[in-house]
Amino acid sequence: MKMRRSWLSTSYLTNEKGVTDIIVYAWGIAISLCVFVLFFISSSFVRQALEVQRIAGGELRDSMRIHNGLTPGTQSFIIRELERRGFDGDKITVTGTPAGANFGTELTASVSYVYDFPIISMLDSAFPNLIGYRPIIIRSEQHAYALGVVR
Questions:
Q1: Which of 89, 76, 139, 145 shows the shortest CA–CA distance to 111?
Q2: What is the pTM of this model?
Q3: If 0-12 CB within 10 Å is exposed, 13-18 middle and 19+ buried, where does residue 66 land?
Q4: Is the distance from CB of 107 to CB of 101 less than 8 angstroms?
Q5: pLDDT in tens, 2-46
Q6: Edge-to-edge, what's the strand order for the sheet holding 92-96?
Q7: Which tens digits make up the pLDDT trace of 74-126?
Q8: Are the C-beta atoms of 19 and 12 separated by less than 8 Å?
Q9: DSSP 3-state assignment of 95?
């Protein structure tokens, strides 16, 4: 009794061109999937980095100029504003020159956010010794001069 071969084995797997087509299509799908995942991860990171930069560049710098430094109220406002936009409040740090500086003093402030890439951190928790992943810190540093508006 002779066994009948299936269509797949006779037409594609015995023909070198058919096997090459299968391999090319499989690699094309894998590469397309990787590009899509990287684009998705990158877009979230870029969006959050731009949001930190925008808030630190606007509200933080103006408040430091007016109050001659960084006040606790400004720190809590920046954290609340970022939390309102979807950031995790435990991962936000706001530091800078304390309020009370003299007119013309250079002031510096920094807003930092610890960003975890979601898929990579999930893989790292599943296989801790394989990847060795560390989160990325999004940081925005601002420089201004005390204007002496509030005395």
A1: 139
A2: 0.68
A3: middle
A4: yes
A5: 555 555 545 555 555 667 777 888 889 999 998 887 787 778 888
A6: 92-96, 106-115, 136-145
A7: 999 999 999 999 899 899 999 999 988 888 889 999 999 998 877 676 676 77
A8: yes
A9: strand
- Pair 94, 61: CB distance under 8 Å: no
Q: Is 132 strand, coil or helix?
A: coil
| Residue appearing with tokens 């790292």 | 124
* Cα 96 to chain centroid, rounded: 23
Residue 50 pairs in a beta bridge with: none
Closest by alpha carbon to 138, among 116, 109, 107, 112? 112
d(CA 107, CA 23): 59
Distance CA 89, CA 83 (A): 6
